[in-house]
Amino acid sequence: MNKSLVIITTLAAAISLASCKNESKAPAPAPSPQASVAAVEAPAVTPGPAQAASESPAAASTPSAQSNPEEKFDFRRARWGMTKEEVKKTERKKPEHETEDSITYSGKYGKLLTAYSYKFIDGKLQRAGVLHTEKLANDSMYLENYENLKKDITEEYGPPALDEEKPLKPGLVIDPDKKAEAVCGGDLMLSSAWDIPGSLVVLMIRAEDKKCLVSLVYMSEGYLRSYPAFNTTGQNGTDN
After folding, report:
1. What is the value of pTM for the model shown?
2. Where on the phi/psi map is residue 97: left (φ > 0), alpha (ψ -120 to 50), or beta?
3. Of 39, 62, 94, 144, which has the most beta carbons under 10 Å away?
4. What is the count of structural domains for the chain?
5. Residue 118 DSSP SS3
6. pLDDT, the chain, mean
7. How confident is the model at residue 70 (pLDDT cuts 50, 70, 90)?
8. What's residue 144's pLDDT?
9. Cα distances (Å, whole numbers) of residue 159 to 20, 152, 154, 155, 169
10. In sequence order, what DSSP letters do the residues of 73-137 get, joined into one string?
11. Whole-angstrom Cα distance, residue 105 to residue 173?
């Protein structure tokens, strides 16, 4: 799954935005504008079997986080290809929101409230993610949250294959000291991607609907291969 960073960036952005719209339907805690950092005993990102609420985002995807070192999970305690009922059995509580093709739960990452969601295609788990939507005191705190998540995930998977700062307006020069304001103001998007066995993991921070959003999305390799761009070659699809 080693494709050009252009494909990863474009695909990740599209999927992440779609994911946000689904997960935003989940009930958000009083101070929270959307659904990204859920508020209950369950961890927010990819915690394993019996993990604490402040678990690192990448935690259940690595052997060290499993109750059985030989077990491998793709997101929390779920594996790609599971049905909705199979995924529900991996969780310790009822979903906060459910549709025909998704399930959303509330959780917590550190002290921040979150919501994490499973997305099913043809009845099989293909994508999952976490949105951090708790309303924070200032723009710098959103950027700090993004950087902390990036650090935690890097500790699990190593350096990201993609680490990008993308101005969203042509020719715009961002003052490094005002990066947080630029992100939350809709002028800049930060993204990091990890290409791990069987999955692509994408962390993003951007503005949407005048809100600053931090999202973490896990996509199965099978899901990625369903996109024509993934299998093309040339300017937007060459292998690295």
Report:
1. 0.73
2. beta
3. 39
4. 1
5. strand
6. 75
7. low
8. 95
9. 25, 11, 5, 8, 28
10. -SBTTB-TT--HHHHHHHSSS--SEEETTEEEEEEEETTEEEEEEEEEETTEEEEEEEEE-PPPS
11. 39
Tell me, what DSSP letter sits at residue 39? Answer: -
Model pLDDT, residue 112: 86
In the block, which residue shows the tokens 């929390």? 76
* Inter-residue contact 23 to 44 (CB < 8 Å): no
The number of residues making up the chain comes to: 240
* Distance of alpha carbon 53 from alpha carbon 45, whole angstroms: 10
User: Where is pLDDT greater, at 35 or 193?
Assistant: 193
Distance CA 193, CA 229 (A): 17
Cα distance between residue 131 and residue 119, in whole Å: 14
Tokens representing 117 are 């969601």
Three-state DSSP state, 214: strand
d(Cα 145, Cα 155) in Å, to the nearest integer?
16
> What is the model's pLDDT at position 235?
40
Distance CA 120, CA 103 (A): 9
Q: Which residue has the tokens 């101005």?
A: 167
How far is the C-alpha of 112 from the C-alpha of 55, rounded, in Å? Answer: 12
Q: Count each helix (H run) and each strand (E run) in the chain, helices first.
A: 5, 8
Structure tokens belonging to residue 128:
């999952």
Is 237 part of a structural domain of the chain? Answer: no
The position carrying tokens 């799954």 is 1
Q: For residue 187, what are the domain limits? A: 5-231
Q: What is the pLDDT of residue 115?
A: 92
Highest mean predicted confidence (pLDDT) among 47-61, 67-81, 197-211: 197-211
**Interior CA angle at 174 toward 16 and 133, to 5°?**
35
Closest among 21, 191, 159, 1 to 80, alpha carbons compared = 1
